[in-house]
Design a protein that fits this description.
By secondary structure, this protein is an alpha/beta fold. It is built from eleven helices and 18 strands. The protein has an eight-stranded parallel beta sheet. The structure holds alpha-D-galactopyranose.
């Protein structure tokens, strides 16, 4: 009896201190966000068109669920009487609730953006001082996802600011995925698992593979491989319900097909959120095939929820591993150079031992079948060394199973 009473007290206690809804992101969130292609040039028609294409292109079937409006959805002022945020009436003539209803009617989920500071990065009203009011407002609009940025925060304490918004969302009693976007400046991986479902680990991504690219105004985005290098060492902080976020996808926005494949493969190897950022109403068949490859996506969405890691680098050729459910493994060979690279990988000579997940790939005692997940083709098994060539800036991505 005593034990039962103690257990009940423990459950009540846990509930009192709970701050987020559990199980709303058991696997990394997947969806689409307006920023990478449209910045603040968004509208009701655009978003409805994106929702329609998400369904007709097979993206929804492949798992992309959330449609998130980034910066620029608001009017420049809050409502002068209620203090509520107001949607830009020109861009969204029927209001945000009607749009949320439309998106939900397609079997999709809907998200919005705001900022912990006094203004959003593009200068619209921020949430500082309005956390509980805004959370109630979002719940009244039936939103499912909130991306929360970090501009105009002056000397605000990041842990407190994100903690307050997280509590406000929880108090509004609607399960809303909380995406922390403070660019990794205050190491959110150390403290944000209790607050939200994903946190940015990098500054903003750009449409470039690696190296320096300066775009207008002297602003320097992170190229894809820079995001990878910043995110990879943080694997131990990620897991079901709390993911490292190396930023949204630039697939289909101007890199080569090989670079897009690499970008997508590595996001999947790192169990990163898959938030497409291209104009999916007009994407090419090649882009669609990359974004909807279910075998690659299943590596990202694997139930074990362990972020993969870079096992070895040799002559610009990286070898990555990710342990998967049922003792399967994903393996990715990444060629960062401008020349083709040869792989000669003798599985039996390798010691792939992941102390984080307590998984071991021992090809001497176990023979795994090998599938090339991009080509959708069976290769031989791990009983023989693998030899192949990887094209410049491309990958060879495999799934091993017993
Ligand atoms: C920041 C974020 C971006 C985007 C813009 C919007 O730069 O990191 O992802 O949301 O703000 O202004």
């Amino acid at each position: 009896m005593k034990k039962i009473i103690l257990l009940v007290l423990l459950v009540i206690n846990l509930k009192t201190f709970a701050q987020k809804f559990e199980s709303i992101a058991a696997t990394p969130p997947m969806g689409w966000n307006s920023w990478n292609t449209f910045q603040t040039n968004i509208s009701e028609d655009l978003v409805k068109g994106i929702a329609d294409s998400l369904v007709s292109s097979g993206m929804k079937d492949a798992g992309y669920t959330y449609i998130v409006l980034d910066d620029g959805w608001m009017a420049m002022q809050r409502d002068s009487v209620s203090g509520d945020l107001v949607a830009d009436p020109k861009k969204f003539p029927h209001g945000i609730k009607a749009l949320a209803d439309y998106i939900h009617s397609k079997g999709l989920k809907f998200g919005l953006y705001n900022c912990a500071g006094t203004k959003t990065c593009a200068g619209y009203p921020g949430t500082r001082g309005y956390e509980y009011q805004d959370a109630r407002f979002y719940a009244s609009l039936d939103i499912d996802y909130l991306k929360f940025d970090w501009c105009y925060t002056d000397s605000l304490n990041a842990q407190e600011a994100y903690g307050t918004m997280s509590k406000a969302l929880f108090a509004a009693r609607r399960p809303i995925v909380f995406s922390l976007c403070e660019w990794g400046s205050h190491q959110p991986w150390l403290w944000a698992a209790k607050d939200g479902e994903l946190w940015r680990t990098t500054g903003d991504i750009g449409v470039c593979y690696q190296g320096d690219t300066v775009i207008s105004g002297g602003w320097k985005p992170n190229c894809v491989m820079k995001c990878v290098d910043l995110n990879e060492p943080l694997r131990k902080y990620a897991g079901p319900g709390h993911w490292n976020d190396p930023d949204m996808l630039e697939v289909g926005n101007g890199m080569s097909a090989a670079e897009d494949r690499t970008h997508f493969s590595l996001w999947c190897m790192m169990a990163a959120p898959l938030i497409a950022g291209n104009d999916i109403r007009k994407m090419t068949p090649e882009t669609r095939m990359i974004l909807t490859n279910k075998d690659v996506i299943s590596v990202d969405q694997d139930a074990l929820g362990v972020q993969g890691w870079r096992y070895v680098t040799k002559d610009s050729l990286e070898t990555w591993f990710k342990p998967l459910n049922n003792d399967d493994w994903a393996v990715c060979f990444v060629n960062r150079s401008r020349q083709p690279q040869k792989i000669n990988f003798d599985w039996k000579n390798e010691n792939v031992n992941d102390t984080l997940s307590s998984r071991q790939l021992n090809a001497s005692s176990t023979t795994y079948k090998i599938t090339d997940v991009w080509m959708k083709k069976s290769l031989s098994t791990t009983s023989k060394p693998l030899s192949a060539t990887v094209a410049p800036h491309d990958v060879l991505m495999l799934r091993l199973n017993k």
